[in-house]
Write a structure and sequence with these properties.
About 40% of the residues are buried. Helix 3 packs parallel to helix 6 and helix 4 (about 230-240) crosses helix 5 (about 260-265). By secondary structure, this protein is α/β, with parallel strands linked by helices. It is built from seven helices and 28 strands. It has a six-stranded mixed sheet with strand order 16-13-17-21-20-18, sandwiched between helices. It has helices at about 10-20, 155-165, 205-215, 230-240, 260-265, 300-320, 370-375; strands at about 25-30, 45, 55, 60-65, 75-80, 90-95, 105-110, 115, 120-125, 135, 145-150, 170-175, 175-185, 185-190, 200, 215-225, 245-250, 270, 275, 285, 290-295, 330, 335, 340-350, 355-360, 375-380, 385, 390-395. Bound molecules: adenosine monophosphate and magnesium ion. The site of adenosine monophosphate (AMP) has 17 residues, from helix 3.
């Protein structure tokens, strides 16, 4: 087999992966204090108005506009947390921010705008407007409104909103459990001294951080030697524990690559070898109830594979509505030509007045992980494309925009 035979296009591979990935099903109840990062399993309707009643947005005086011409004695004092009585005709109420508007009052005058008669009656300015300084009941949320949809991954903003309608407990999907396998006889954990022939295992930590940031739970990790037996038994253990088994390395066709036959012996491999660069030998399949994704060992290939495949697959397993990147278009500052593989370039995307400008990291080798830190986006060049400076290129951001620097190398 030639190295370029039977390569599946990336888009076709991704949609097949998503089709083979089961949607999240298992639901659990969690307290709102534990809900950050979880995915909502059901739409949330509000059972109350927010705010629940008209209230004052100022410290000041509540009155009837019809009474505004004459001096107004103060007939009640309403602090936040108190329930006011109806406002007596021809009087005003002292009121504070967040306090409920007394029935009958239709405006609040801020305390800085008033004066008093010798008898301590209130005098208000003439230019008053109906409803001024009153926050209306339901101005934020109406009772019965859907405030959040199933599939939303909850962050601190959502928690604030949920609390504002009084929700203490909510239904979320179970966290996705992931097992990471790092294949390679050459790998050593950071913290140990390197012996000749060895390199540090970077993929394990790259993937662990990536997965945890996406709300998954890494339940096991193994470093696996390059033998068929070791690979097979590690895959077996991983599949017994996790919804998603992620391996790196050993997925090609070399004598030291055992992932493919080992997965085939335990389950089935649906996808293998994609028309993409970096990362041709990506594999996807099932072992029992677990989804298996095999990423190539080069750290940039692992990184790109994580962005392009692991993220959307994980989103589906997690019940999250969003998984696909937000595609953007930018102008290339570089030249590039692709062959039969779709290429993912590490680029620095910066917004310049009215468009995104894309600068490519000079060394796009799949072993150069520095490129992924320097860059904040992946530009996608389809197969057989020629890109010249100024050409439009599709990309997605994976990190915030960095300040452009003339030369970072
Ligand atoms: P493989 O896909 O096993 O052929 O590995 C491709 C390249 O990636 C080799 O140079 C490996 O040494 C390297 N590599 C594999 N796994 C890791 C890892 N976990 N961390 C860093 N480099 C790796
Ligand atoms: Mg290897």
């Amino acid at each position: 087999m030639r190295p370029t035979d039977n390569l599946m296009p990336v888009d076709q591979a991704l949609s097949a992966m998503l089709q083979l990935t089961p949607l999240a099903e298992v639901i659990e109840q969690v307290a709102i204090s534990k809900a950050a990062g979880r995915v909502l399993a059901k739409d949330i309707q509000s059972t109350c108005d927010v705010p629940p009643a008209d209230n004052s947005s100022m410290d000041g005086y509540a009155l009837r506009l019809a009474d505004a011409g004459a001096p107004l004695p103060i007939s009640q004092r309403v602090a936040a947390g108190r329930s006011p009585g109806p406002l007596t005709q021809g009087t005003c109420a002292r009121i504070f921010t967040g306090a409920e508007i007394p029935p009958g009052a239709d405006a609040v005058v801020m305390q800085e705008a008033v004066s008093f008669t010798a008898f301590d009656d209130l005098l208000v300015p003439e230019d008053l407007k109906p409803g001024q300084n009153i926050r209306r009941a339901g101005q934020d949320i109406r009772r019965g409104a859907t405030i959040l949809k199933a599939g939303t991954r909850l962050d601190y903003r959502h928690l604030g909103l949920l609390a504002s309608v009084g929700i203490a407990e909510l239904a979320v999907f179970r966290k996705v459990s992931v097992a990471i396998l790092s294949t390679g006889d050459e790998l050593v954990q950071p913290g140990k001294a390197l012996q000749p022939g060895q390199i540090y295992n970077s993929n394990r930590f790259l993937l662990q951080g990536f997965l945890e940031a996406l709300g998954a739970e890494v339940v096991s990790f193994e470093q696996v030697g390059d033998t068929y037996a070791e690979t097979q038994s590690a895959l077996r253990r991983a599949a017994d524990q996790a919804d998603l088994v992620l391996s790196t390395g050993g997925v090609s066709v070399g004598e030291e690559d055992h992932i493919k036959p080992a997965v085939e012996s335990l389950g089935e491999l649906a996808i293998w070898r994609l028309a993409m660069k970096p990362g041709k030998p990506v594999a996807f399949g099932r072992i029992d109830q677990s989804i298996f994704i095999g990423l190539p060992g080069n750290p940039v290939s692992t990184f790109v594979g994580a962005q392009v495949f692991v993220k959307p697959v994980l989103a589906r397993l997690a019940g999250e509505a969003a998984g696909e990147p937000d595609w953007l278009t930018g102008l290339a500052s570089f030249s590039a030509a692709t062959k039969i593989r779709q290429e993912y370039l590490r680029v620095q995307a910066t917004w310049q007045d009215d468009h995104w400008q894309l600068n490519a990291y000079p060394n796009q080798n799949s072993g150069v992980l520095t490129s992924a830190i320097w860059a904040n986006a992946l530009a996608v060049l389809p197969p057989e494309s020629d890109v010249a400076p100024g050409d439009k290129v599709r990309f997605f951001l994976y990190a915030d925009q960095t300040t452009p620097k003339p030369d970072n190398n």
